[in-house]
């Protein structure tokens, strides 16, 4: 029995590691909830409480969030290889603890921006590490399913929390009630990560020992960055698609609530619409991640980016609640095709010895898209209006899908 213990401890597969895998799904739902507490409320807080009239100024919190999350993603990959997955996860939750309290008591908008710097670090460390840990546990055969479950949990929690905080804001005001939910999430996430989550780095070492995939020469972090960002066709296609995907999500997060409010929608209606995007996004990933294990990654990535572009065009054309409800559901469906599939493609191409660092580089680009989207959309909205900003991001999203169609090869062909 003793001789077999090490193999059991590092055996790969979702079913084999079901208890720990399920726990990590729950932890990532709490990570998503930390983001969801802001989705419906913060744009309205900028306008009604702090009286910000320029869209660019109002979107500074998304810019701060995107930049810090992108950087944290990069370091999460490197640190999880050096120090282990669990210490990085715990550090992310510790950094996220004060965020809800700062949002509740912020006397000026600069405090809100500072809270989003901390939130960006929290999201970058915790979400990146839960992704890496699930890849560690799942092994090569079910990465798409693993990523679908991970991202579904996170974004369904974003949706549920956005809806809940929208209702709380409508009933009890923009502060403090909505952010008390985030405080509970942070405390629970830290407790689970400290007491119940187990280290998974050994599973990656085990996969590296048994894999038939050639590792090639040892790669430096700089070489991994260059390969993931620019030179390897599939990895670089994934990176640019991730950046553009989150650019349009930054647009949706920052400007859609203001667009809906300008057309006379209530806070409750805005909260519902704000929840539709991550709800469709989250639920859809339960299907698309597993489907990409069967049919390949590239079709979902290309079709998803083009679907998002069409949905953004419908948002720009719409003026009523029901048109926007259809558009945001479609936008969520397109994002669901892309999100878990991009991560699974990274897992397909990279070797276990440098996979975590490549995931960190990809997520650096992907979440840098929040900053790109906030800055680009804010400037264009200030100069030409929200509708023009939406059309611009829609065109950029369509171009991203076409680029992936031309440059990317299939990383997980149907067997």
UniProtKB/TrEMBL annotation:
CDD domains, A to Z: MFS_MdtG_SLC18_like
Main location: membrane
Keywords: Cell membrane, Membrane, Transmembrane, Transmembrane helix, Transport
Membrane topology summary: Multi-pass membrane protein
Location relative to the cell: Cell membrane
Domain Major facilitator superfamily (MFS) profile: 17-412
Membrane-spanning parts: 12-35, 55-76, 88-106, 112-132, 152-170, 176-197, 300-317, 323-343, 390-409
Keyword hit for Ribosomal protein: no
Superkingdom per UniProt: Bacteria
Coiled-coil residues: none
Protein's recorded name: MFS transporter
């Amino acid at each position: 029995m003793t001789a077999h213990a090490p193999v059991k401890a590092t055996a790969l597969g979702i079913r084999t590691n079901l208890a720990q895998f399920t726990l990590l799904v729950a932890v990532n739902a709490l990570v998503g909830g930390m983001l969801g507490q802001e989705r419906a409320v913060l744009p309205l807080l900028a306008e009604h409480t702090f009286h910000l009239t320029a869209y660019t100024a109002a979107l500074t919190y998304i810019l701060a969030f995107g930049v810090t999350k992108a950087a944290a993603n990069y370091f999460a990959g490197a640190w999880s290889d050096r120090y282990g997955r669990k210490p990085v996860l715990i550090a992310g939750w510790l950094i996220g603890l004060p965020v809800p309290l700062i949002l509740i008591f912020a006397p000026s908008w600069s405090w809100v921006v500072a809270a989003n710097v901390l939130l960006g670090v929290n999201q970058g460390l915790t979400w990146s590490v839960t992704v890496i840990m699930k890849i560690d546990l799942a092994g090569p055969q079910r990465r798409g399913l693993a990523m679908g479950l991970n991202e579904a949990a996170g974004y369904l929690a974003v949706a549920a929390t956005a809806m809940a905080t929208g209702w709380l804001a409508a009933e009890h005001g923009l502060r403090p009630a909505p952010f008390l939910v985030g405080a509970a999430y942070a405390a629970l996430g830290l407790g689970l990560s400290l007491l119940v989550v187990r280290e998974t780095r050994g599973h990656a070492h085990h996969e590296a020992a048994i894999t038939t995939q050639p590792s090639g020469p040892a790669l430096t972090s700089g070489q991994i960055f260059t390969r993931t960002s620019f030179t390897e066709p599939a990895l670089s296609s994934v990176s640019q698609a991730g950046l553009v995907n989150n650019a349009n999500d930054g647009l949706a997060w920052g400007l859609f609530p203001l667009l809906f409010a300008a057309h006379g929608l209530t806070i409750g209606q805005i909260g519902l619409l704000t929840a539709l995007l991550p709800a469709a996004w989250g639920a859809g990933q339960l299907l698309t991640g597993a489907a990409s294990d069967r049919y390949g990654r590239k079709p979902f990535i290309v079709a998803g980016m083009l679907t998002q572009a069409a949905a953004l065009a419908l948002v720009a054309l719409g003026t009523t609640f029901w048109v926007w409800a259809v558009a945001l559901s479609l936008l969520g469906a397109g994002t669901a095709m892309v999100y878990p599939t991009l991560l699974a493609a990274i897992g397909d191409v990279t070797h276990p010895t440098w996979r975590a660092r490549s995931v960190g580089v990809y997520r650096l680009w992907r979440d840098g898209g929040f900053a790109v989207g906030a800055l680009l959309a804010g400037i264009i909205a200030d100069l030409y209006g929200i509708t023009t900003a939406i059309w611009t991001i829609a065109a950029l999203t369509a171009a991203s899908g076409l680029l992936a169609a031309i440059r990317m090869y299939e990383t997980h062909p149907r067997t």
